[in-house]
Amino acid sequence: MENIKKLLLENKAWAKGHADIDPAYFENLAKGQKPDILWIGCADSRVPPDEIINSRPGTLFVHRNIANIIHANDENFLSVLEFAIRFLKVRYVIVCGHYNCGGVQAAFEGIENDRLTHWTESVRELKEKHNPKSINELVEISVCAQVEKLKSLPVIQEAWKAGEYPKILGWVYNLHNGLLKELTLYDPAVSK
Ligand SMILES: [Zn+2]
After folding, report:
1. Which residues surround ligand 1, an ion (CB under 5 A)?
2. pLDDT tens, 144-156?
């Protein structure tokens, strides 16, 4: 319980820190959000999206799950995507995986764990198809595959018919040095 109490104390200190620098900080954020980016990342505690790109609240609209996997029938993800594209009109969708991902490792090593096995089935299929030599190679293959899946989704196709956004990027994060690497970028304006 002490650890949980500490969270609340840290929150007070964090809020005070912002309010001391800019008394209107929270009121301005409360007026509404207009993020430019939908971030699709892994649930891993070591890859906090806002922190690794040094961004402030209001920058990223975020969806996270184990191994940043996109399923075309995942209602949770699809509602996030639809809201981000149709209402927030984000200009960029970033799929960010990370090396040494536990979810990808489970798929790579064929670890049996009912729900996780089911959830990572599509990553297992990528392993069968591409025969990667390492977990990290499969991480990269999977990020690129998620970008391809995004490109085929109706809400994205619909947005591209109306304009030149969103652009879709595939990145991977390195736990060992804190750096992001660009793997792929799909710009519909260039591809039209
Ligand atoms: Zn992960």
Report:
1. 42, 44, 101
2. 999 999 999 999 9
Query: How far apart (Å, rounded) are the C-alpha atoms in residues 63 and 80?
Result: 7
Distances in Å between the alpha carbon of 156 and those of 70, 122, 131, 188? Answer: 13, 21, 30, 10
Cα–ligand 1 centroid distance for 97 (angstroms): 7
Q: What is the pLDDT of residues 82-98, one digit of tens each?
A: 999 999 999 999 999 99
Indicate the pTM of the whole model: 0.95
Q: Where are the domains of the chain?
A: 1-32, 33-191
- Predicted confidence (pLDDT) per residue in 54-80, tens digit: 999 999 999 999 999 999 999 999 999
Given a contact cutoff of 8 angstroms between Cβ atoms, the answer to whether 166 and 159 are in contact is yes
173 CA to centre of ligand 1 in angstroms: 10
Domain 33-191: homologous superfamily in CATH: Carbonic anhydrase (3.40.1050.10)
Active site residue 96: no
Ligand 1 centroid distance, CA of 48 (Å) = 11
CB 168 within 8 A of CB 39: no
